[in-house]
Amino acid sequence: MNDITVDVLIIGAGPSGCVAASYLKNNGISSKVVEKSKFPRFVIGESLLPRCMDHFEETGLLDCLVEQKFEIKAGARFLKNDIVCNFDFGKKHTPGWDYTWQVPRADFDHTLAKEIVKKGVDVSFGHEVTSVEFDENGNSTTTIKTEEGNEYNIKAKFIIDSSGYGRVLPRLLDLEKPSTLNPNSAIYTHVKETERPAGVEGTLITFDVVKDEVWLWVIPFSNGNTSIGFVGPTEFIESFKGTNAEKLKDMLKISDYYYDRLKNQEFLFEPHIIKNYSKAVKQLYGKGYALTGNSAEFLDPVFSSGVTFATESGLKAAKLITKELNGEKVDWQEDYTKYIMKGVDVFRTYVSEWYTGNLQKIFFHRPENPVIKEQICAVLAGYVWDNSNPFVKNHNRLVKTVAKVIDMENEVAN
């Protein structure tokens, strides 16, 4: 193949890469997307947050997704010890979308990728990045290998790394660093539900807390399939013996709420295990590149923040690159790293406090405080940059403070 020269090389055709590519196309910036996989392909991360609907709408990708009639996600349900905590995205502190979707990612990602191709974006599937070099001005030369083993180079002024779990630039540029979160793992599969309850119950995304640090996700799709998976400390996942299918079947027995519903459902594929999934990097950008989504930071799936951070960072990177290519000055540390990490830090607090038990105390305390619930609901909807929300602005201390007040109330009551 002949070498290619573009303004922006985008690595990865997932949600982050598609949002970035669509924005660049809409603003007259030339880009090339390379994707190692062939679509449609399976990937985990099937629960979205309302915040990402803003990104799809802004980049012209919303209508193609609406046409797919994915399962509506109007909130989220958390269960523990017979207590139910329902969050309704229509009742949240921050204005914004009051719904999103539960999506089979193979279909969702393929829809986005087809749409950007339809818009005229140059996308190559089955093309793998093997090396990259930057000059002193940030211009890059990236070597690509095709499925047939042929190589070619892409010269670009910027690279957006939206490679997700592939983490291409972090690997090639030695940007990886250990996550500060506890080493958790996940085991998951899909089932074709033949005994799905009728009505709302059969559509609800639920997080069933079977132990303080272990929970089961249940994500029904509109096609009749359901994603199920356990998350917990790596040693807990490894304590179950046998094949992955045998392990997951044994784990389902500890869910009082879902065991009867799921015990006879056939797994559509051998369950996958991801060990110690939380990731971090030394920096989110460098001269000539930006890391987005899971190629930068991945926290934990408990609040479904993955796709939202992917689309938020992909869109933000595309906007800043467009400004710079148009001759405007961009402060990448202030406008990208500090902005993205502000949201990441909010969610990191909620993930950490979930596993300390403090956030669970708030979720399952009765009676509920409606104001606190609306403020937390806005966080769970992905609006983690809204400083008018005390549970965003003061996230570092407020969750701990409210949990301490609950402890004090319980002591007085006892």
TrEMBL record:
GO molecular function, one term: FAD binding
Species whose genome carries this gene: Aequorivita antarctica
Protein name per Swiss-Prot or TrEMBL: NAD(P)/FAD-dependent oxidoreductase
Listed PANTHER family: FAD-BINDING PROTEIN, SLR1998 PROTEIN
Limits of the FAD-binding domain: 6-166
Database matches in Pfam families: FAD_binding_3 (PF01494)
Coiled-coil residue windows: none
